[in-house]
Specification:
Layout (H helix, E strand, L loop, with lengths): L1 H8 L7 E6 L5 E2 L15 E5 L1 H7 L33 E3 L6 E5 L9 H14 L4 E5 L3 H13 L2 E7 L4 H9 L3 E5 L3 H15 L2 E2 L7 H6 L1 H9 L7 E5 L4 H15 L9 E7 L4 H8 L25 H11 L2 E5 L1 H15 L5 H16 L8 E5 L7 H8 L23
Parallel strand pairs: 5-13, 6-7, 6-9, 7-8, 10-11, 10-13, 11-12
Antiparallel strand pairs: 1-2, 1-3, 4-5
Helix pairs in contact: 3-4, 4-5, 8-9, 12-13
The structure holds pyridoxal-5'-phosphate and zinc ion.
Length: 417
C-alpha cells in the first residue's frame, strides 16, 4: 500500500544524509547504520544533510501536491516511507481570536502528532534492516509505534505506565505489539528498556535517543510556515513532555532559512507544561540549563508526565534563544480550557492541547503576548483518545448513574417519559 503511494508521489529527489551530529558536543557520527546517541557524550543526535547540495535539489512543495508530511520529501531522508497518511494537518483559525491559529494534529493516523516521528523512525528502521524496536512511552508514542511497526512487519516492544489512557493500551494490543504496563512513570519504563534491550536485541527508539523522530516531527515546522504563506508567526505554543516537536520545529526553521524558503524573525517558542509535572518550567524560572527530576509527577495531561526530559537542555536553549517562555498550568485550568474550546470552537482538544490554549489565555492576561500577535497553538492529539481521563476529570461516571433530572449540567442517563 505505502509503496504504491510512494511510487506516484515521491518522485522528486530526497535528501542524502551526510552524518549524524551530536547536539551537545557536535561530534559527527557516520550514518551507515541506525545510531542511538552520541558515542562520546550520549547527547541526542541530529540528522545532517549537505546543505549546499540541498540548495540545488530541494524544492518548496507546490499547492496541492502530496497531502502528507512526505510533501517535504526533498528535505527528508532518502527512504521508502512506511506511511499511513501522516501530516499535512489542518491549521484552523479560532472563531473568537482573529490572530490565533490551531494546528489540529488530531487528524493524524492514531489521532496524535506522534505519528510523524514514528512514521519516520519505523521507515528508517526498515531501511536499515532492523527487526525489533522498543520504546518507553507516556501513551501516544506507543500507539503510533505499534501502528507503524504493524504496517512495516517489525516487532514492537512497548513499556508504559499502567494508568495511561485506555485507548493507548488498547491500540498497542490491537496493533499486535508486545505491551507491558508498568507500575511507575515513563522514567521507570525507560530504565526497563535500557536494562533489557541488549539481551533482547531491541533497538531503542526512546524520545531523543535516536535521530529520526525529530526528523519526522520537524515537518510540523515546515507545515505551519507553508500554511501561513511561507512566513513565521509571532509565537508557537507547544505542549512539552520530551520536547521532540519543539526541537524538530526549530531544526526546520534553521533548514528553511538556509534554503531561502522563509525569512524574518523566528517565532517565540512557548513550551507548555502541567503544574503537576513541570521540570522544564521550574528550570526555566531558576535560570538553569538543565532540569531536575520532578518528584511525584501527576497530571491528566498524560503526555506531559515526563519528570526529567532527556533533551531538557535543548528545550531550554531553544526557548531562551527564541525569546519565548515556559508556562505551567494546573489541571483545573487545563480542563476549563478544554471545555471552553469544546463549547465555543467545536474542538475536543487533548488535555495537552488544552494546556496550550490555557497558556495562551494566561500569556495574554499577563501581557507577555498581545491579542494582535499571530500565534499558532498545537493541539497535539484528539480528545477522543482520553475519554476515560477527561470523563474522570469532569466527574462523569456513566455506569454509576441510573437516572438524572432532565436538565443536568454534565451528562448522566435520562429516562425518557
Ligand atoms: C498528545 C501529546 N501531546 C504532547 C506530548 C509531548 O510531546 P513531546 O514529547 O514531543 O514533548 C505528548 C507525549 O506523549 C502527547 O502524547
Ligand atoms: Zn556528543
Amino acid at each position: 500500500m505505502d509503496s504504491l503511494q510512494a511510487g506516484c508521489c515521491y518522485a522528486e529527489i530526497m535528501a542524502s544524509i551526510t552524518c549524524f551530529e551530536c547536539s551537545r558536543c557536535q561530534n559527527q557520527v557516520s550514518a551507515d547504520s541506525y545510531k542511538t546517541v552520541c558515542p562520546s557524550c550520549a547527547g541526542p543526535l541530529y540528522v545532517r544533510y549537505d546543505i549546499s547540495a540541498l540548495q540545488k535539489t530541494a524544492v518548496r512543495p507546490v499547492e496541492g501536491g502530496n497531502q502528507s508530511m512526505w510533501r517535504y520529501a526533498s528535505v527528508l531522508p532518502d527512504v521508502d516511507p512506511v506511511t499511513l497518511g501522516e501530516g499535512w494537518t489542518p491549521i484552523l483559525r479560532s472563531r473568537r481570536f482573529a490572530h490565533l491559529y490551531l494546528k489540529e494534529e488530531a487528524t493524524n493516523p492514531t489521532g496524535t502528532f506522534k505519528a510523524r516521528g514514528m512514521a519516520m523512525a519505523v521507515s528508517m528502521a526498515r531501511h536499515y534492516g532492523l527487526k525489533k524496536l522498543a520504546a518507553p512511552s507516556a501513551g501516544n508514542a506507543a500507539g503510533a509505534l505499534a501502528a507503524y511497526a504493524a504496517a512495516a512487519g517489525i516487532e514492537a516492544h512497548i513499556f508504559m505506565p499502567k494508568d495511561v489512557p485506555l485507548a493507548n493500551y488498547l491500540e498497542g494490543v490491537a496493533y499486535g505489539a508486545n505491551v507491558t504496563l508498568v507500575d511507575g512513570l515513563i522514567s521507570d519504563c525507560a530504565r526497563i528498556v535500557q536494562e533489557r534491550k541488549e539481551k533482547e536485541g531491541w533497538f531503542d527508539v526512546s524520545t531523543l535517543k535516536e535521530p529520526f523522530r525529530v526528523e519526522g516531527k520537524k515537518t510540523m515546522g515546515y507545515e505551519l510556515v507553508e500554511q501561513l504563506g511561507w512566513t513565521y508567526p509571532d509565537a508557537v505554543f507547544y505542549p512539552t513532555g520530551g520536547g521532540v516537536g519543539l526541537i524538530g520545529m526549530w531544526k526546520a526553521f534553521e533548514e528553511m532559512e538556509q534554503l531561502g524558503w522563509v525569512r524574518g524573525k523566528r517565532p517565540k517558542m512557548i513550551a507548555v507544561q502541567a503544574s503537576g509535572c513541570a521540570p522544564v518550567s521550574r528550570a526555566f524560572q531558576q535560570g538553569a540549563k538543565t532540569s531536575q527530576m520532578f518528584e511525584n509527577a501527576s497530571t491528566f495531561a498524560s503526555g506531559l508526565r515526563v519528570p526529567k526530559p532527556y533533551g531538557d537542555f535543548m528545550i531550554l536553549d531553544i526557548v531562551r534563544s527564541s525569546g519565548g517562555t515556559v508556562v505551567d498550568l494546573p489541571d483545573e485550568k487545563i480542563l476549563a480550557s478544554l471545555l471552553d474550546w469544546s463549547r465555543h470552537e467545536g474542538l475536543l482538544l487533548s488535555p495537552e492541547g488544552a494546556a496550550a490554549t490555557a497558556a495562551y489565555d494566561f500569556l495574554i492576561e499577563t501581557g507577555f503576548l498581545r491579542p494582535d500577535d499571530r500565534v499558532v497553538i498545537f493541539n497535539t492529539g484528539s480528545g477522543l483518545k482520553y475519554v476515560d481521563l477527561i470523563a474522570d476529570a469532569m466527574g462523569i461516571r456513566r455506569n454509576e448513574v441510573k437516572t438524572l433530572p432532565q436538565r443536568t449540567p454534565v451528562g448522566g442517563i435520562i429516562t425518557p417519559q
